[in-house]
Amino acid sequence: MNIQLAKSAGFCFGAKRAVDMVYSLLAQGKRAVTLGQLLHNPQLVAELEGRGVKPVQSPGEAPPGHVLVLRSHGVTAQVEEEIARLGLETADATCPFVKKIHNLAEQAGREGRVFILFGDPEHPEVQGAVSHCKGPRFVCRDRKELEELLESRPELRFEPVAAAAQTTFHRFQWQNCSESLKKLCT
């Protein structure tokens, strides 16, 4: 039997960056914990735990002398504020593509735009992204939820809108949602 590994097998760019960041900290002799699981990968989480890198559920749980690594999904603005208040040493492993969505959400709020994010509202990436918007914001799982939102809030059709999608959102679904936005929002 011949087994071939696809060129794109492995972690995405943001995940690889996060893992490399933790390995670099360990190579420097630093002790680290991750805020939540670094990735949704039980084998990696177990391997890191074997090297002393355990996940914690809140910044306040970070042991003294440990670097708190922010996972690739990013964190909420409130968690960032808590980390600053506690004065914790951190390594921000937020994927640059996720960080770009955080910045878009923040900019939308400053500009008075309605921010609509397509994705899973329970996912940490989505929760982190919408927390950075200080104006009106909504999360829709798909085009159907967008249409329901605009039916229940028809005034949104005439508001300036900024939209983005969770980084793992299926491209075909994003195309459907963005086409609906263009048709329904003037």
Biggest sheet: strands side by side, in what order? 2-1-3-4
Q: What share of the residues does DSSP label as strand, in percent?
A: 15-25%
Outline the biggest β-sheet: 4 strands, parallel
State the total count of DSSP E strands.
Answer: 7
Q: First CA to last CA: what distance?
A: 57 Å
Quick one: overall form?
Answer: globular
Global Rg: 19 Å
What structural class do helix, strand and pairing data support? Answer: alpha/beta
H/E topology pattern: HEHEEHEHEHEHEH
**Mean pLDDT across all amino acids:** 93
Q: Number of DSSP helices?
A: 7
- Stretches where pLDDT falls below 50 for ≥5 residues? none
Question: Share of helix among residues?
Answer: 40-55%
Explained architecture:
The chain is α/β, with parallel strands linked by helices and 186 residues long. It has 7 helices and 7 strands; from the N terminus they run H-E-H-E-E-H-E-H-E-H-E-H-E-H. It has helices spanning 13-27, 42-50, 77-86, 96-110, 124-131, 143-152, 171-184; strands spanning 31-35, 54-56, 66-70, 90-92, 114-118, 137-140, 161-165. The strands form 2 sheets. Strands 2-1-3-4 form a 4-stranded parallel beta sheet. Helix 3 (77-86) links the parallel strand 3 (66-70) and strand 4.
What's this model, at a glance?
By secondary structure, the protein is an alpha/beta fold.
Descriptive terms for the model:
186 residues, alpha/beta, four-stranded parallel sheet, 16% strand, three-stranded parallel sheet
